[in-house]
């Protein structure tokens, strides 16, 4: 994900058209909040200790230009023929085509949705600030009931706007450094037309969606020149974006585990986590689900590429279709059987 927030929707908080799903009343939501707060207190120090113990390699190497192109596809790769794509789709079939299989695995379980934003709920656009959630998706999710995880899960907040809704910020001590590096990057990249630096609070994104491909390598060198003076930050790459974030043992997979633990779902056999994302950074969450042997990972991509996700969807439109079908199925499966009057 390349915008500032991911969206995490608990099964108790999913809504469609403003109407809550069965079993999502106020009492259920309150219990969900309480579990999150209690879990956060016990785990926050654990992850802070992990962060303090993490170390970063002194030599930060960067991918070659070809790797940048491979990680930032704008269309099907020229070398991807029909047979290769067909083989990839057999390994990662459409979540829509296999919907009944996913629904069957969900029977009798709470579905906990983890949703990336930019490229998943919103199309990838030239200006990252212009990425927005469509009205249909906005109405579907019922925003006030969500848990938000920004900056690759380093800024997790629960429903509500009060300070107690902040559940986890394992990299809070890095904030002054990140603000400082942001200013340096903005100044440094001024000479590269189309480059945009975004401050996501706990990480920085240098977007090159609008940068001429001939200048990608030059921009990478500019970013490397800045980060070499800040060894406590690490450099990663996503879809047409360079990202600088604290070098701590934390990623979207750790955030997923934290939320499941905080919500009281970590050891529950009647819970099915579903994670939908489009970026390389979402792979950490897909790997966690595979390791757990419990959950569904769905990659949003039109291209065949290495992934730990089990299923695929092509674009945000298909994501919306999948979510609507899931809500409709959940409602119908939870509804009491119809009693026909005797004649």
TrEMBL record:
List the SUPFAM superfamilies hit by this protein, alphabetically. Answer: HAD-like (SSF56784)
Enzyme Commission identifier(s): 3.1.3.12
Pathway assignment:
Glycan biosynthesis; trehalose biosynthesis
Q: Name one GO biological process term.
A: trehalose biosynthetic process
What InterPro entries does the record point to? Answer: HAD-like_sf, HAD_sf, OTSB-like, Trehalose_PPase
Q: Which UniProt keywords apply?
A: Hydrolase
Give the top-rank taxon of the lineage listed in the UniProt record for this protein. Eukaryota
> What cofactor is needed?
a divalent metal cation
Q: Name one GO molecular function term.
A: trehalose-phosphatase activity
What's its catalytic activity? alpha,alpha-trehalose 6-phosphate + H2O = alpha,alpha-trehalose + phosphate
Q: What class of enzyme is it?
A: hydrolase
Instruction: Give the family per the record.
Output: Belongs to the trehalose phosphatase family.
* Role noted for this protein: Removes the phosphate from trehalose 6-phosphate to produce free trehalose.
Query: This protein is called what?
Result: Trehalose 6-phosphate phosphatase
> Which species is this record about?
Triticum aestivum (Wheat)
């Amino acid at each position: 994900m390349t915008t500032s927030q991911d969206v995490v929707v608990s099964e108790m908080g999913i809504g469609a058209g403003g109407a809550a799903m069965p079993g999502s009343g106020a009492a259920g939501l309150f219990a969900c909040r309480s579990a999150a707060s209690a879990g956060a207190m016990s785990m926050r120090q654990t992850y802070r200790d992990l962060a303090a113990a993490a170390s970063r390699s002194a030599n930060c190497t960067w991918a070659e230009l070809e790797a940048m192109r491979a990680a930032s596809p704008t269309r099907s790769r020229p070398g991807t023929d029909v047979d290769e794509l067909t083989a990839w789709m057999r390994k990662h079939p459409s979540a829509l085509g296999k919907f009944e299989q996913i629904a069957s695995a969900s029977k009798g379980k709470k579905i906990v949705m983890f949703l990336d934003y930019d490229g998943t709920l919103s199309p990838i656009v030239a200006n990252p600030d212009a990425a927005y959630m469509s009205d249909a998706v906005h109405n579907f999710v019922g925003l006030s009931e969500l848990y938000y995880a920004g900056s690759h899960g380093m800024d997790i907040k629960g429903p509500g706007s009060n300070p107690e809704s902040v559940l986890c910020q394992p990299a809070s001590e890095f904030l002054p450094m990140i603000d400082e590096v942001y200013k340096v990057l903005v100044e440094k990249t001024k000479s590269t037309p189309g480059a945009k630096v975004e401050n996501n609070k706990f990480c920085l994104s240098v977007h090159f969606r609008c940068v001429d491909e001939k200048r990608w390598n030059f921009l990478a060198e500019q970013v490397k020149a800045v980060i070499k003076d800040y060894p406590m930050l690490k450099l990663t790459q996503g879809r047409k974006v360079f990202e600088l974030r604290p070098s701590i043992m934390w990623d979207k997979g750790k955030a997923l585990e934290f939320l499941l633990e905080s919500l009281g779902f970590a050891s529950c056999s009647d819970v099915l986590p579903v994670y939908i994302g489009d970026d390389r950074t979402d792979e950490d969450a897909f790997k966690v689900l595979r390791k757990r042997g419990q959950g569904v990972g769905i990659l949003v991509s039109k291209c065949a590429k290495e992934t730990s996700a089990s299923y695929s969807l092509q674009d945000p439109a298909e994501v919306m279709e999948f979510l609507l079908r899931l809500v409709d199925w959940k409602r119908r499966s939870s509804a009491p059987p119809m009693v026909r009057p005797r004649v």
